[in-house]
Fold these 2 entries.
Entry 1:
Amino acid sequence: MLRKSPFKNRKILIGITGGIAAYKIPQLVRILKKEGAEVQIVLSESAKNFVTPQTLSVLSEKPALSDFFKSNQGDWNNHVHLGLWADLILIAPAGANTLAKMTHGICDNLLMSVILSARCPIFVAPAMDLDMWIHPSTQTNIQTLVDRGVHLIDPEEGSLASGLEGKGRMAEPENIAQFLSAHLAPKPNYFLGKRVLVSAGGTQEAIDPVRYIGNHSSGKMGFAIAEQLIELGADVELVYGAVTIAPPANCHSYQTLSAKAMKAKCDEIFPTCDVLIMAAAVADYHAVDVASEKIKKSDDALTLTLAKNPDILKSLSETKKEHQVLIGFALETEKEEFHALEKLQKKNLDCIVLNSLKNPNAGFAVDTNEVTLYCKDGEQFHIPTQQKDQVAAALLNKLGEWLTKTTT
Ligand code: CTP
């Protein structure tokens, strides 16, 4: 049977910057075109010293772009459209200057504007002399970009244009194509057809008919996870407490305000599930005596006696069958990793997702989040700050990959 190329009909934008390795890009364009990709070239002014726009236009079958304005027509190349058009952007060769500009959002030509406008995965294939490559500023910039989700195609070792030998040569076109192909190839979808119980939101523990003890959870992260699981073809059961937005459609959802009610619903549903993702912020205590009438103010101080709530996740993990997978969340304000790993172990979980409250763009009140996934075999994955739906997608992607690898 003929293999379907992962490049077929994919829109790949190649950004070429000034560097001798640019002469290899026509070869890469030929490989990608042969595999069925649509290729758009955007090149910097200095790239033209190493490769001609004409060669690239002929091979890519599209005009190779470098200016905002099309000289004689007064028309312009829209960087936003180009950024949104691409399924994948590759910057090759990416010199030290380009990496520094990407790190700092410097937007002084068409290519840099396209990169800032892009929503698709971005790959960089650096090329530079070995001392520039190992320079702390280059390495720091690379690390920042990788932390933001940019994919690094490591330079190779060998003879450099300077006459020196070492690391800094741009990866060969065949190797770049292979790297991109691995990214584009369809991945096994662990969650397809799986029955997944997701909990979300915060619980409310009544004090009287008017007041309760609650927390700041909005339910956004748990709902984003549920939505993403539905997209992945899972059969989602959603149990949620107090939230600030509507739950997603296309799943069974149940609102349970107290920890006790949430436990009862989770206990009922969990035995028939394959996966539990416990994203709810469950109150640890409830009022021992809930007043039947509104408590009137009288004395200067009011003492409430609280009793511990059951730990829903821990009690479910004690009933866990072999095929079931349990994922917990941890929200910490200090010794974050230590506490998260302690919970992973104490609650007998497969993985735990650590929410960091140290980042002002993560946590309850905002639409963005930053998390780290810790797995019981010691693997960990950091998901940098993004919109909560993007964090949910990246998290389930990593989780799905890890579960595929460890449970089959
Ligand atoms: N959890 C639970 N039932 C509880 C408390 C927590 O199921 N009564 C779950 C949460 O949904 C989360 C995980 O346990 O998936 C960790 O919750 P967290 O509040 O971070 O930790 P606790 O175990 O409550 O410990 P502490 O509050 O002391 O940090």
Note: The longest strand covers residues 325-332.
Entry 2:
Amino acid sequence: MAQLNGSKKIKTAVFISGTGSNLKSLIKFSKLKKSPISIDIILSNNSKSKGLIFCKIYKIKKKVFNFNKKLSTEKKILNELKKNKIKLICLAGFMKILSNQFIKNFNGKILNIHPSLLPKYKGLNTHERAIDNKEKYSGCTVHYVTAKLDSGKIIKQKIVKINKSDTPQLLKKKILAQEHKLYPEAILKIFSL
Ligand code: GRF
């Protein structure tokens, strides 16, 4: 894949709801010469998302949308994305489910990171469920977003060993550390194909 300079990079939006540690790792990655993406806008459904601090630190445009009226909000978001020439969306701890209509508008251009080895443990509380089921391994997955929750084509995964002494919090921490490597790797993979 050819090296991309700042202006040629694929304009990307990151959607968050919480801490934004994956957002931070994506921003750092986007600044590398080898990154095919630039991060041009950060969206959140929650004005209190801790991750919004990174908009300030890295001087990236931020937009907060109220998802109570989902369909009209999504229309506003689509306008905003169009205005900013966004070509890729990375969901990173975004806790709202996007409508089929929205997904169709960005068909094949929305990625998500999930803290389990999909197709196992779709949805919430993945670490608790993996430990309760006495799994030996868990991990994380980057996949395409489709209308069916956590079910789109898998791009890349990382496996994490579960130790007997692991609590859900400990496992979450171990998996998050791998997530921060996985998301950039998955992006490199799809754009170097
Ligand atoms: C991550 O575990 C991600 O896999 C899941 O939500 C969490 C977000 O963490 N979808 P952060 O906000 O990126 O720190």
Note: The mean pLDDT is 95.
